[in-house]
Write a structure and sequence with these properties.
Layout: H1 9-19, H2 29-39, E1 41-44, E2 50-54, E3 57-61, H3 71-83, H4 88-92
Length: about 90
């Protein structure tokens, strides 16, 4: 996808935290879940993971899904966002 999806200001702020260097350590899971739900369909599994279907891709984020993202989760989120056309550059162009 060459154009990034439309994001409201709250979701844009979450994306900006995800792309921030050095890595931000105050990204809340509930903010990420809201962002992902705006991009596709998400559900929490009985094992505490988050499954998100965005387009034709299924992304699974292992739990626990509370409080803040760890460094691995942030890296995984950066990859996912890039795969749907959201990058630090596209965020800066709005």
């Amino acid at each position: 996808m060459s154009d990034s999806p439309h994001l409201d200001s709250h979701h844009r702020a979450t994306c900006e935290k995800i792309f921030r260097h050095p890595t931000s350590h105050n990204i809340q899971w509930h903010d990420v879940t809201s962002l992902l739900e705006s991009l596709g369909e998400c559900r929490e599994t009985k094992h505490g993971s988050l499954e998100c279907k965005i387009g034709e891709e299924l992304h699974v984020f292992p739990g626990p899904l509370h409080r803040e993202l760890n460094d691995q989760h942030v890296g995984d989120m950066r990859k996912l966002l890039k795969s749907v056309g959201i990058t630090a550059d596209t965020l800066g162009s709005h």
